[in-house]
Amino acid sequence: MPRVLRSGVLGLCVALVAGVLPAAAQVSKGEIFGKVTDTTGAVLPGVAVTIESPALIQPQTAVTEASGGYRFPNIPIGTYSVRFELNGFKKLVRTDVVITAGFNAEINAKLELSTVQETVTVSGESPVVDTRSTQVGGTFNLKQMQEIPTARDPWEIIQQTPGMSMTSENVGGNGSGQQPGFNVHGTNTNMWTMDGATITDTSSNSSPMYYDFDSFAEMTINTGAGDASQQTAGITVNIITKSGGNTFRGGGRFYDTNKKFEANNVTTALRAQGAGAGNPILDIKDYGAEFGGPILRNKAWFYVAQARNDIRVGVLGFLLDPAGDPNDRNNLRPDKTLLDNTNFKAQYQWSGGHKSTFQFAYDNKQRGSRGADTFHPIETTYKQTGPVPLYRGEHQWVVSNRLSLDGQFTYLRGGFLLDFQDPSLADVQELFYVDAGDHHRTAAGGNYQTWRPQWEGRADANYYLPQVLHGEHSMKFGFRYRTTPIESISIIGGGAIARIRSAANQGTCTVQGVVYTRSCNEADIVRNSDFNVQRWDNDVYFNDTYKIDRLSANIGVRLDNYRDKALTAQAPANAMLPAQLPNLQFQGADSHVRWHNFQPRLGLNYDIFGNGKTVLHGNAARYYGITMNTAGTLQPTGSPTTLRYRWVDVNGDLFVQLNELDFAGGLINTPANYDPANPSSPVTPNTVDPNLKNTRTTEFTIGVDHELRRNFAVGATYIHRKYDGNSGLFRVGASSDEYFAQTVTRACGNGTTCDQASYTATYFQRNAALPVAQIRRNSASYTTFDGLELTARKRYSQHWMFAGNLSVNAGKQHAPVATRDYLDPTNHDQTEGKTADRITPWNAKVSVLYALPWQISMSGLLDTRSGFAYNTQIRSPTRPNGLGTVDILLQDANSLHYPAFHQLDIRLDKAIRFGSRSLTLAATLFNITNNNVTLSKVTRQDSSTANNITTIIAPRVAQLGAKFTF
Fold it and tell me: For 46-52, which contacts have Cβ atoms below 8 Å and span 24 or more sequence positions?
């Protein structure tokens, strides 16, 4: 590398590391460290330590310090050999050292004196317990991902993590191409990284793209107890993609999951509850190819992959002929999703310890009927498209035995379109039968286009400092700068929604001087929206792993800085009511709130017996939220503005006309971000508390990990968390004391499906309309979580592999300041101090693989959990003064549960080898017991579809596939 260029890179790296911005950890890499002594225990400085691996373009060498210590930070995942050499001593080689993302492998060595050249080789003794890290979560290597039976979807891997619960279940791929929510330790906040680059879509708390599963080398899911390099208390999903090597390798695959090999799990009893034809797979084809190898051996590598996943599933109640038989599978309209993926990575090893990487990834999701279900026929669903390219550049520099630097830049062009099924539907009003929940005529929610680009620049450094304060210091520090603008435009079909009530819920109104008694419905007149904001965050962290004898202490701090701003936007006037909903030209606004969140971290590990096999660990940490959203509060164009009036369909066409609205009765809702006294104002009546604080998580963990036998470890961890610093929008000047109680009695809306004929419940209303102005501020609400996780894991050796975990969880929600922190008291008594949402009392996962003779292997995966909570309710009448309706809980929140969920999958592989080439034939059977557990149902007891099933687990189905590799 030319001296000028080398000096420039050094200057840039030093400038970045010395900056005042921040970073996340290099979670795509691991570490080998240790100490070298002679047989008497005396330390040996000057030992040449060399690591080699197919994951390294060139071997790396370090020399032990005066303390005998050495360190190789930020090395790629893979299997390594570690060689120790010093004149006068036998050469020692440790082979089969497995490095996974974030794992710190302690490889100590004792060298024996020798007068002749001898080599001692030790194989198969790779550590399985990390003596430095307190982090909890799960790591899934290539063998686990490829050979344990799953739907070949990253969310299926996430689900296997200890403590994790998903909001939906994927059987054989019937949920692939969608993004289920997930919850662990009482939070659903998640962060996605790819090869160390942050790619989280903070606008939706999700991944911005979909993936080629076969391009993954490893996945690591961190769920807590992170050091200072970790930003979030939630779930951090780390995807490590494949790289090339010094040998040309590649292959192709084809998997097919078809209804020809599918059972039926809908019983007569379930059909009576509305289960129809269930949720079967119609056809899923997953195919792709990959190729990688050297451009120049020991110098430059490349990897390229192309994949397509064509998914066609049936959705309960989504019918080709709505008047036809809902129990007939042939009457299910296919819900089609197509995923296209391209991946490319090139790496170049310069001289002097420099390595550069360029990466390109591309994803395009196309879905034909997003939102499809019993209540959304085809014309009310969306056509979705979303091409997302990602570009990443990285440069690493091993400056010396002690210092290494890493810098990278990432650009991702996120976003997607949810379009009407036909362009003409943009002029059609949605028809919504409120009490039954049925939507008709056009897309519910209208057309939605969003642009979500991301830019990130970051730098990290590792520095090794031995023999200070009687111990070894492994330090890492760095920064990250990230900006994530977002603009989203919503277009409501026809500018209005016709809302039809059941006869019992129709009110009285006056239209054109005529009084209509108990025959009035509702109409929403809507102005389209333009949400346009930009967010910035930068973070700096420092973490020191201080090791003295058997004790390791992770002492760290990080500072996260956040700001956001509402940008210029425009919302066009509503054609029906241009005076009340005029054109708005918003010029932008800044809340001037800035968050500077200081986060201390302390983790302790104690090697109980000094052999690295039994480690007691504990952690205390403070985390804050990962984004700011004050800008949306200040943007009057940010969401569709809805004015709800009573409406009489005078001409009987089920469309809203101007002369059918009851203007004399006024609005029956209180629109957010709208001032009826000044509807053309381009400035919102809303404000942001200048003292607004970020959400906060306080965490404590304690646990133990033990190497039960070679390659087999067990562990137990207790986790306690408190989530506070919550914020919300509150009406300025309003108090809960201004509400008074009312009771309502509703009959079961669906015959005999309820547990009683009618229900009486209490709701609240007020004598005056709510104030127009709202303020975003903190509340005193908080939640707590306590959980115990038991884990067991065995690496593949002696023909078998195993992973299992069991979690027991509890959580409570609290809203302790009634007058200040909630307005409408309805449902407060049913939620205060009760179980928090989406926490399962228990969940467990077990996976196992066994290699049989004749190159046959068998594997299985069991996923089981307690049923999610559900809450039954009835709906109040339309309340005066613009309060609208409210759903009233009939019991304490989350006290009822769906049945427990169980899914067992098995897989059988047969490999046929031709020298270095291999053809693997695979057969997988999903939901082998043909379980038909109910996953969701209608919970409104006064609905005409009360307690009807809306989702059951998909039936048993077989997948056949072949994979060729060379």
Answer: 46/86, 47/84, 47/85, 47/86, 47/109, 47/111, 48/83, 48/84, 48/85, 48/86, 49/82, 49/83, 49/84, 50/82, 50/83, 50/85, 51/75, 51/80, 51/81, 51/82, 51/83, 52/80, 52/81, 52/83
